[in-house]
């Protein structure tokens, strides 16, 4: 499978895994991949047990969708998805809508 096709399939798998698990405290999700590894980057307002459980559930669902030889990992950034978030440089799966100024 071509690189871009593989990446697109992976992005769809992450979206599928995250259905119903993105809460208001989750600000952004992106995907980084190479031949044998997938890193899902999360930016969250704060890391609570509820958010950690949601991330664990997303990663568990993703593992069920991935081919056996591919390994997955979650990296969690507490804070805004700004230039300090390493996930900013990879394929975005979810970005929270910024608040509208009055």
Describe this structure in a few short sentences.
The chain has 102 residues and is of the alpha+beta class. The protein has helices spanning 3-18, 49-65; strands at residues 26-33, 37-44, 71-78, 91-95.
Topology record:
Blueprint: H1 3-18, E1 26-33, E2 37-44, H2 49-65, E3 71-78, E4 91-95
Parallel strand pairs: 2-3
Antiparallel strand pairs: 1-2, 1-4
Describe the structure.
This protein has 102 residues and is α+β, with helices and mostly antiparallel strands. It has a single domain (3-95), classed as Alpha-Beta Plaits (2-Layer Sandwich). It contains 2 helices and 4 strands. It has helices at residues 3-18, 49-65, and strands at 26-33, 37-44, 71-78, 91-95. It has a 4-stranded mixed beta sheet, covered by helices on one side. A hairpin with a 3-residue loop joins β1 (26-33) and β2 (37-44). α1 (3-18) crosses α2. The longest helix has 17 residues, at 49-65. It is globular, with a radius of gyration of 14 Å. The relative contact order is 0.24.
């Amino acid at each position: 499978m071509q690189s871009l096709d593989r990446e697109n399939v992976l992005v769809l798998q992450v979206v599928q895994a995250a259905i119903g698990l993105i809460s208001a405290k989750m600000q952004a999700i992106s995907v980084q991949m190479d031949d044998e590894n997938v890193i899902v980057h999360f930016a969250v307002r704060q890391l609570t047990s509820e958010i950690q459980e949601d991330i664990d559930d997303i990663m568990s669902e993703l593992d069920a969708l991935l081919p056996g030889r591919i390994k997955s990992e979650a990296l969690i950034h507490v804070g805004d998805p700004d230039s300090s978030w390493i996930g900013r440089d990879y394929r975005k799966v979810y970005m929270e809508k910024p608040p509208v100024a009055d």
